[in-house]
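Weekly sync, protein design subgroup
Attendees: M.S., D.O., the rotation student, P.L. (late)

Item 1: inverse folding check
M.S. brought a backbone from last month's batch and wanted to see whether the design step gives back something sensible before we order anything. D.O. pointed out we never logged the input encoding, so this time it goes straight into the notes. Structure tokens as presented (258 positions):
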């Protein structure tokens, strides 16, 4: 992380976990720690139905509420979908776009990810855009090529003035929910590669201002080292974001890097 230029963001992705009561309790427990956090922006990406309870519980705190997906159209015949405008109206600030579970299970292609990024920005949301390679891609030595392409496609049509509302998350698929974590060097190498794509497309100044997170089995044991890397500006955290204790410890690890 480099606090001179960009924010540190610690974001939890609860996936399909925690009910409204548990969400409220989690946020209540996290509040004292959030109040002490000097450098970190704290984000909780909760299931759609938990958004109202989470927004209410987080009111007046440093905790921002995010969603885990969105549709790219503002309204229409899209059964079961939620638009970015609806999320914004409900008090959501961030939305995860292109998570590998959605790419894998719901057919979110790079093109669809791009449409969702543009829709999120249009609605005033901050997209957290996930990119990352499979183990096979890594073994074949094409990680950086794949990630470059994912980033370029996801950001097609994003204007310079919109870029500061975009967060990238490098999430190697082989590390998500598996207990395997990228080494700090691997995470930083890909983070730096993403920033280079941003530099080529938007210039050095804009690229310096974008937070690039790492996600993939980040936990209380590895967070400090990962977050010490210059191109790892925070974490997108699944499993370890489900308990205040572990999530809080990761926030504390981030806060130690001044
Ligand atoms: C994720 O789902 O974005 C994630 C990083 O999960 P986990 O931390 O459980 O690997």
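Designed sequence read out in the meeting:
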């Amino acid at each position: 992380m480099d606090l001179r230029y960009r924010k540190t963001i610690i974001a939890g992705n609860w996936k399909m976990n925690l009910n409204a009561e548990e969400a409220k309790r989690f946020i209540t427990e996290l509040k004292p720690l959030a109040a002490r956090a000097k450098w970190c922006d704290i984000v909780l990406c909760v299931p759609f139905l938990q958004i109202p309870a989470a927004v209410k519980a987080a009111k007046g705190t440093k905790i921002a509420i995010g969603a885990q997906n969105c549709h790219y159209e503002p309204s229409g015949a899209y059964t079961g979908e939620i638009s970015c405008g609806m999320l914004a109206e409900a008090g959501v600030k961030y939305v995860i776009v292109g998570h590998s579970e959605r790419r894998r299970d719901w057919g979110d292609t790079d093109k669809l990810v791009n449409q969702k990024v543009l829709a999120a920005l249009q609605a005033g949301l901050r997209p957290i855009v996930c990119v990352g390679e499979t183990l096979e891609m890594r073994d074949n030595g094409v990680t950086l090529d794949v990630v470059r392409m994912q980033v370029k496609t996801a950001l097609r049509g994003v204007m310079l003035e919109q870029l500061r509302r975009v967060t990238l998350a490098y999430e190697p698929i082989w590390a998500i929910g598996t207990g395997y974590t990228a080494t700090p060097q691997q995470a930083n190498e890909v983070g730096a590669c993403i920033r280079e794509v941003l530099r080529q497309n938007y210039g050095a100044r804009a690229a310096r201002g974008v937070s690039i997170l790492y996600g993939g089995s980040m936990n209380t044991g590895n967070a400090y080292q990962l977050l010490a890397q210059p191109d790892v500006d925070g974490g997108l955290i699944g499993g370890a974001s489900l308990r205040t204790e572990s999530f809080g410890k990761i926030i504390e690890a981030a806060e130690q890097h001044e």
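Discussion: Strands lie at 8-13, 40-45, 63-67, 94-97, 126-131, 167-170, 212-215, 234-237. The CA atoms of residues 153 and 170 lie 15 Å apart.
Action: P.L. to compare against the previous round before Friday.
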